[in-house]
Amino acid sequence: MPVTENAGGEGPLVPDQPDHVKRTAIDLIAAYADRNRDELERVIPRAADDAGAVQSELRVISAFLGRRVQETGVVWKPADSREAVARTVAEMLPPELEFAVSTAWEAHTVGEEEAAERFTRGDPMVYVHMLAAFSAAIGLAVYKRAELISTLRQVTGLSE
């Protein structure tokens, strides 16, 4: 698999995902940013087909957005993250999945990875939803919606 530098040329090299995986990750973030449940439901099957790769791409995107928040000086604490993810997935997911995503993210933000893994019950899509919801929430803290999606397309190497 080809390898590229992280967005902004910082940090270690990461595997370059296929364009369809990048599009799927960005489409998930866009659906959460727009609070568009119908669009989210359309994207979920594509995400489930490539859950591991989409999760990997979302990790890269969320790390990029985390750095952007730090660079802009926006105050974003772990408690803000937990609240934002819970608010972002509220009414977007079935209740049992919403609960799993919110509680797994809460455990993740305090470094309790074993607990987070238990809350996922081995479902990689819980992590996909966690990371997409986090990326939408933190991304909207520093970008307007259109700018967020445009920026993500640029940093992932997708054309507009």
Describe the structure.
This protein has 160 residues and is mainly alpha-helical. The protein has one domain. It is 73% helix and 4% strand. It contains 8 helices and 2 strands, in the order ββαααααααα. The chain has helices at residues 19-34, 37-49, 51-72, 78-89, 95-109, 113-120, 124-142, 145-156; strands at 3-5, 13-15. The protein has a two-stranded antiparallel ribbon with strand order 1-2. The radius of gyration is 15 Å and the shape is globular. The chain starts with a strand and ends with a helix. The chain crosses the membrane at residues 125-143. This is DUF1641 domain-containing protein. Keywords: Membrane, Transmembrane, Transmembrane helix.
Question: Notable features of this structure?
Answer:
transmembrane helix, mainly alpha, disordered N terminus, 73% helix, globular, 4% strand, 160 residues, two-stranded antiparallel sheet
SSE layout and pairings?
Layout: E1 3-5, E2 13-15, H1 19-34, H2 37-49, H3 51-72, H4 78-89, H5 95-109, H6 113-120, H7 124-142, H8 145-156
Antiparallel strand pairs: 1-2
Helix pairs in contact: 1-2, 1-3, 1-7, 1-8, 3-7, 4-5, 4-7, 5-6, 5-7
